[in-house]
Predict the structure of GNAT family N-acetyltransferase.
Amino acid sequence: MNLPPYSQFPQLTGDGILLREVLPADIPALIPISFYDGKPATTFAEATEMQVRIDKDYADRNSIHWCIVDTATSQITGTLGYYRGFANNTGELGFVLLPRYQGKGYMSKAINLAVNFGLDIIGLSRVTAITTKQNLKAVQLLTRLNFAKVKELNEDEVEYETVA
């Protein structure tokens, strides 16, 4: 497997979006959607600390985290990446969009780019995503992108996997 970190942080482009490294200047825009271990940031300081931890995970070969940028406007629309390591040639995708960009196709494009990167560049054999049963938008998105439900993790969470 070709795990991070890479000599140059990978930028992925396609159909009006760019996936790129999160920069310090991006933090204010990302506060509403900054999470680490399921806990949200509520302040600039918390979001900055979370990004420091995400950057350390990348340096430790356990993750890669991109911001999603609309190339027409240069606006950040959300984030996504692989988290929690790459054990058993598996990568778990996590993703979140700023509310004003939901339903406009940004995440579909970003997930497709990230899945292809995981399979073709990292060399993963499985790409998974975990969401809650109540997150109907995520369930619909994953289903539309050919992820199949593989198991219920508990009474609230479900794991999905890409289907070739």
The chain has four helices and ten strands. The first helix runs from residue 27 to 30. Residues 2 and 60 are 13 Å apart (CA to CA).
